[in-house]
Write a structure and sequence with these properties.
about 100 residues, mainly alpha, 3 helices
Length: about 100
């Protein structure tokens, strides 16, 4: 092996320790920034998702109230939620709709 070949092999051997440390520090900084953004964004996402689910449940309940041929169910629903500020909870089966107090 000539002197030129030995010098070329030594200089092209791979990454230096400084390059590896800089790359690791850069990766840590990026991951920390992503974790911070995700930590602020995730509670809002969950709150919005819960609001959408609640709206869909209320829409389903109201649709069943409208299509239910039994007027007794609608009267019980009005009595159960008259003047109350809470979300309705209902237990639906294929043939009937029950409201919880």
């Amino acid at each position: 092996m000539t002197r030129y070949q030995r010098h070329h092999v030594k200089t092209a051997a791979g990454f230096t320790l400084i390059e590896v440390l800089v790359a690791t520090a850069l990766m840590g900084t990026i991951l920390a920034a992503l974790a911070t953004i995700t930590a602020q964004w995730l509670p809002n996402w969950n709150r919005g998702f819960a609001r959408v689910q609640r709206s869909e449940q209320i829409a389903l309940g109201l649709e069943r109230l409208v299509t239910d041929p039994d007027p007794e169910v609608a009267q019980r629903a009005r009595r159960a939620f008259a003047g109350q500020r809470r979300t309705p909870e209902w237990h639906a089966a294929a043939a009937r709709l029950d409201f919880s107090d």
